Amino acid sequence: MDYTLLFVQVLNGLQLGLLLFLVASGLTLVFGILDFVNLAHGSIYMIGAFIGASLTLLLGNFLLAVLIAVPLTGVLGYLIERFVARQLYDKDHLDHVLGTFGLILVLDTSAHIIWGPAGITVPLPAWLDGQVALFTGVVFPTFRLLIISVGLAVAAGLFWLVNYTKLGMLIRAGASNRTMVSALGIDIQTLFALVFALGAMLAGLAGMLIAPITTASIGMGGQIIITAFVVIIIGGIGSMKGAFIGAIIIGLIDTLGRSFLDQLFELFMSESAAETAAPAVSAMMIYILMAIILAVKPQGLFPPKVR
Amino acid sequence: MRKLLGTALAATMLTGLAQAAEVKIGFVTTLTTGGAVIGNDIKKGVDLALEHMGGKMGDLDINLIFGDDGFKPETGKQVTDKLVKQDNVDFVAGYIWSHVLMASRKTVIDSGKFMITANAGPGPVGGKLCHKNFFSASWMNDQGPMAMGEVLNQKGVKSLYIIAPNYAAGKGMVAGVKRTFKGEVLGTDMTTWPTQLDFSAELAKAKASGADGLFVFYPGKAGGAFMKQYQQAGLKSSLPLYTAFTIDALSLPKFQAAGFTDVLGSQFTGHWDPNLDNAQNKRFVADFRAQHGAYPSPYAAQAYDSIFMIKGAVEAVGGDLTNQDGMRAAMESANYDSVRGAFSYDSSHIPVQPWYLREVVKDSDGNWTTKIVQTIAQSVENPYAADCKM
Amino acid sequence: MIPLLQVAKLRKSFGGVVATDDVSLDVIKGEIHAIIGPNGAGKTTLISQLSGALAPDSGAVTLNGVDITFKPAHTRARLGITRSFQITSLVMEMSVLDNVALAVQARDGSSFRFIKPARSITHIRDKARDFLHQVGMHGRADDPTSALSHGEHRQMEIAIALASEAELMLLDEPMAGLGPTESQMLTEFLQGLKGSRTILLIEHDMDAVFALADRISVLVYGKVIATGTPDEIRNNRDVRNAYLGDE
Amino acid sequence: MGKMTVVSWVTLFGMVLLAVLPPLFLMNGQAFYMDLATRLVILGIAAVSLNLILGFGGMVSFGHAAFIGLGAYAVGIPAHHATWGGFDLIASYNGFLHLGLAISISALFALITGAISLRTKGVYFIMITMAFGQMAFFLFQSLDVYNGDDGLTIDVRSEFPLINLDEPLQLYILSYVSLVGVMLLVRMIVNSRFGMVLQGAKGNNERMLTLGYNTYFYRLTAYVISGAMCGYAGFLLGNFTTFISPDMMHWTRSGELMFMVILGGASTLFGPVLGSSVFILVEEILSSFTIFWHLPFGLMLIGLVLFIRGGLMGLFKSKGR
User: Which of B168, B316, C102, D286 could tie D293 with a disulfide, CB 3.0–4.6 Å?
Assistant: First the structure.
């Protein structure tokens, strides 16, 4: 076993996991507190990436662009909440799925019309574009380390927000007892809009962070949204801890699967069959994991206490 | 609904009457999803060809209908069905993606119409599934990488790592480079297509393998993503990159806008280049640049060629579209002016043509483009030709 | 005499709050056994554990000598327990008759039958109509359930409980939300069932309880503090202090 | 028989239209419209099968496209081996073999996935069915023998005595008759004692448990029946398109099926058929105007959810009352 490679792949898996966490945390907030299934969360991630990319090209500064683009996606989230999501809260989950499925089509096609199919390559400042030597023989792209750090920082921030702030208290109360929040005299609509916008900002940030790696492109949302749903289902809907742990597990499984599964398969099948099977099976593994977890714990690893 | 169906019925009655003197061409390409990057350039190539023809092939008007395959084999087959059955076209051309071509092939062949691929070159169509009515205006998937294998041998590369997407063309490209490369292949990773755009795990494996070189094939937007990550991983000095259909006139302006100078000097193989010195190519490239302010991609060049190929066939029979044998003979003779220069066809209707080594350079105005640095071979064999019983 | 239902030291807590605190009681065949207690005494939690909607932390429930402590609700129903719900629980999308017919159908052999239209099976429909007739609702048999009033829904709950022909009926506040006249009528109706049915009754309406019950158990903060005849309970000092004191 | 309501008139009219129009198109040399109708009828079968569990059983399955794919591959894989060799056990063009495989494999898949999925509720159920669908999608993507993602061309259609599926008209008639059969089957199931329990469990599961019904097994049975019917639709679709790929099982396809059911009207007999018809026609019309047809299509979907209760059939219902 090549331990250096394993170490690098674990870092890669962690990076993917934390990126997933950024998307999944917003999803689990919206899902857990508003009881709203938002399939279009991935489209917000995509539009965040495009806004960030356009601003980067316009301003010539990636970090500045992100600072401006994150609140912009928050505004977008607010608008979606105001004009679509809010109308859907009192309908059932099936309607949420269909309505936001429609929203995906609208947002993705709009992005195609606005930004074209080519996607945008995002330039990074030189100090982010290189590599860091972690120790002898192990170099890792600086920017991926940045994603890991931002992901961890956001996770810490969210834990603080949810567990130690008034807003967090409201969020937790909203998740478990809607009437109580109203009884406290808090405008639940404002709370919901805030949560939705926060979720949108987290998704947008994730999109902006991945764009310098994979480019901002149409269709990127449809790929991540399903994985993000798997994350929060595994973790337990509404649980921030669940989303974090689920995201890390899935990031690691996906990356390690892609790294080592083909070698495993070559033990009992031809090389070319293994090359075809490995990527698809590693993509399948996260669904198998989800099925196993739900078979044992139908409400995920960390189900919210009261619903 | 009733009104709609009524309209459709009325349309049914009318089609019999309006049979003008025209040649109908169905052109399937990708106009939506990320694959539309290539599709749009192809459409520009087709439109320019029509413009250069003045909308006529001989005495016949050209009626060209685009179909969008949505980057999916199933959708591609559906639009092909429609072109064949409803629009009743005389030629079906286009097809960027090998799997879309494979899915659509049977529909066209069974209908007895001509099918011309303007890009996709999956192995079977040049081999066991070859057909008298099927022609390629491009190449076989394997051929570009086969040429690259020769280049690698010449450069003294001893070992290679390969990363490519897991679909028909990716498999063909990998098979191609393995066929000619004489050194050792230390590992091959096939990635999920077209969804996977993050190649961190694969790049880490490639690096750990200690190979002399890395060969990849990532057409369209995935190419940009790959190049970026390759650079971020800092592999340029330790693991030189050799590509096929990954860097092109579509991605270069984006790289230039993003200040991604590492791309300059990259080398890859091709059967065409904007700098090829022939009259047809000069006119094509000049007018394309004048219209769109950018260099055409090979995809656009092939699409442009495919329309001229049809023109050559139609004019050879004096516009008598019922004379299929005549048109076929004309196409087999490659009787038109191709932007790639003169070429011929092998027995399986795959072009026999020179392959070049191309390099990314700045042109005199500072735009990033490519030039030919070497002619690798006057022809690269179609490895599947032996399976073709025509 | 072997009791029909025996509850021994049943215990259930929710995150530190003990809702059912070592409850022991029994129900004898043919009696109406009422459970009373202030709000939050754990009456509905107890019923849920008896019907199988909730699993207890410890203790045992036996029906006719069979341990059913951890049996799921549908198994208990097959063994002879049915319940009505405090908050009306009906299939609103179906007609009144369909609702009752489903209860009759449950006693009529397997329902894994796919061919014959259920609504044309006369013996089931007739029997269901009969039960509706008993609660005085035959006139509304074909109306959609969602169109009925609250009082009528309560009547339907009773009809369904009857139709399931269970040995033991757990009635969870059947009078909830009814006006005095309706309550009176329901009390009389239940009185008519006395002897032919065994009922465990949870009810706030004290007039009804004392009129109907053969025995009464008093539940306070999850504990049974007394069990006895209505007269015994009325005169029990603990009960008066804990519960009836302000009467 | 009872009085004819507006809904039953619409159903009858729609079914007659579907019986008469497509053959007329074919006779007029408009083979493409015949194709469109065949696709619409086959997807109608799939939608009717989904409606059994979604509309009547309240089980929102977001992975139903997997069954279509399984049914289609049950045609494609034996035919592939019959053409190119290998896997002698199933290598055959025999239609009865294909049909048997399509139905039994779909039913088996439904049994296994349903047994796990039905332990969950609500959103968890929606998402776990989707996960199983994606599992099937990636499974077929991983099978190099069957070209993985590139899909499989079916060179020879299923062979039956007396009927020839290469004839578009015969294939259409088979599909249409199958649709009618499946609709009658669903009607029979829904009205049976089993169906009453199924609908009861949709309306109030706790009540049904209290009555002694182990609703889990009723639901599972319905899920298996629905899966098998959907697999049958896949069998027809494979024979119709002669090209199959894992894409047929992608979650977006399952979403489209759900959309068809809701668009037409869940828990009605004709709703899913109306839904699939409108879906396919609107898709066809919009996409002929613009490549950006997903935009108006998405707006339509949002509008449907926001403003039309009970789908298109709901419109007729309110007029009928």
Answer: D286
